[in-house]
Amino acid sequence: MELKQLAAQFQIEGTIAEVKPLGEGFINDTFIIKTEGDSPNYILQRKNKNIFTDVPAMMENIQKVTTHIKKKVAAAGGDVMREAMTVTPTIDNKLHFLDEEGEFWAACMFIDETIAYQTAETPELAKAGGHGIGKFQAQVADLKEPLTDILPGFHNIRFRFKQWDEVLAKDPVGRKAEVAEEVKWIEDRRAEMLEFWQLVEDGTIATRVTHNDTKINNILFDKKGDVLCVIDLDTVLNSTVLNDYGDAMRSYTNTGLEDDENLDNVSMDLDIFKAYTEGYLEETIGFITQPELDYLAFSAKYITYEQVLRFLMDYIDGDNYYKVKSDTHNLVRTRAQYKLLQSMEEQFETMQKVVNETAAQLKTTLA
After folding, report:
1. Domain range 3-109, its CATH number among 3.30.200.20, 3.40.50.300, 3.40.50.720, 3.40.718.10
2. pLDDT tens digits for 96-138?
3. Cβ(28)–Cβ(48) under 8 Å?
4. Which among 328, 334, 332 is positioned nearest to 311, based on CA atoms?
5. What are the angstrom distances between the C-alpha of 344 and each of 39, 266, 353, 363?
6. How many Cβ atoms sit within 10 Å of the Cβ of residue 21?
7. CATH superfamily, with its number, for domain 123-366
8. Nearest to 216 by CA among 206, 202, 205, 231
9. Kind of pairing between the strands at 237-239 and 208-210
């Protein structure tokens, strides 16, 4: 089926002029549907059914979240068409279209006159990113409808350790012996990471609606630089908000590349950490609990550690999950992420101080 025919399966206002590729998505294939005249444009996506094995449930999650956010935007007197994603249903009122080849397609309104950034290279941009994710979390903090877990085990370190132990026991390509030092990095921190996750499992740390892909390019800004909305909601599910914060810190604060071969390039930028934390807490201080605040800084270490484990596990397993450019690519990634983790550990007391002082100031302002 041609792209125009696929686009015509959705409730598109106006006449479809063209459908062409948009961006270079690593997971989904994304296209823009351009219409004639003043009719709105749309985003069309072929969802990756290998990553998202239950696309209908994923789309239901997105609809629940966007509907809830739109109610919040409307109550605040905002623009519901620009300050929230709008899912576009099919002509038979479904949230996805299944083509004759078994591929899943979905559409949403295109929000024009926006700015998206690829990286947060300054504290000012990092703070704006913190506002973006914090605003999203605040908007859905009271969403009680359960979401389908479309990524079982995601950021669950107990689940990751089960996978890890199985891979180490099998050592399928005989690489374990050569990375004994790296394996020790994982084992030395196992108890600490499980102790944190136990707090999530027993409810001490709340389970909420989370985004789970907190790159700054998933936040749309208006021409003035203010946050409009968060996009790319494929990964929304119920977890701890600390995963979103920690994942942002892993990507925002790294002074090097995720696979940097020169470890001297890699460290955690404390100024970026401070700026993001300020923006994030300015939005979330009204609902975030003390246990969440207590572990906010720790979540940066937790998510970075998890990524060290996953890169190393994939290397030992023979590079079956991540795409690699060489036989040692996953090992390079492991060492670079471990350097970032070490930098976080070295600055951890200061990170905690930043969180505590920022939270205290904001609570005083609200009092």
Report:
1. 3.30.200.20
2. 999 999 999 999 999 999 999 988 889 999 999 999 999 999 9
3. yes
4. 334
5. 49, 11, 13, 26
6. 11
7. Aminoglycoside phosphotransferase (APH), C-terminal lobe (3.90.1200.10)
8. 231
9. antiparallel
